[in-house]
Write a structure and sequence with these properties.
Residues 70-196 form the Response regulatory domain. The chain is α/β, with parallel strands linked by helices. The protein has helices spanning 13-66, 78-90, 103-116, 133-145, 164-172, 185-200, 208-211; strands at residues 70-74, 96-100, 123-127, 155-159, 177-180. Strand 4 (155-159), helix 5 (164-172) and strand 5 (177-180) form a beta-alpha-beta unit.
Length: 212
Amino acid sequence: MADDPRFNPEKSPKKLRKIYRQPFRFLFRIWSRIFFSFVRFLTVCHVILYIEIYLSMSTTSNKSRLKNAKLLVIEDNEDQWRLIEKALRECHIQLETIWVPTGQQALAYLEDCLLVGLGLPLLILLDLYLPERADGWAVLEKIRSQKTPIDCLPVVVLSASGHPEDVASSYDRGITSYVVKPTDFRDWITTFQAMKEYWLETVALPDLHYRY
């Protein structure tokens, strides 16, 4: 005990206070670390919770947006249409698919959607050669010249041609995307799966019912 500074009368009160404070400082450091670790844990939990809520809201909003949504396919070749239809089913694209073989029928359908109060399609797939390239461009130009909201509809060209002039001129006329038709059915599946992930699960498209 004689060696213990707490029982050494030669030690000053200041030194004694310092000695007595050491255990408390040690405990304080431990509790501080525990407290801040707990705070960090709560922060991470809140971030994860907010992300889950956001993803849940996005999924719910996406499902609501896709409910009763339609896809308009303008394709003059019935064999190609059957291939497209099969690929859409394989990709589980849950949209009501409307097929029309001519541009005139497509424009009439879009106008009827407004007149009768039917929902406009979420997306238009347009074959460029109907059967000539000029026919596809004419349909595209008429769609873009229609009154709102028809002129706002996303138009994706599906064409067997990957010629640079066809691609560039189609974009000049207001298409949203240009996709070269695959030659193998497995590639059709890959193409439509990518389109599904982008157009139906990633991008936010305007709610035409709400705006108009």
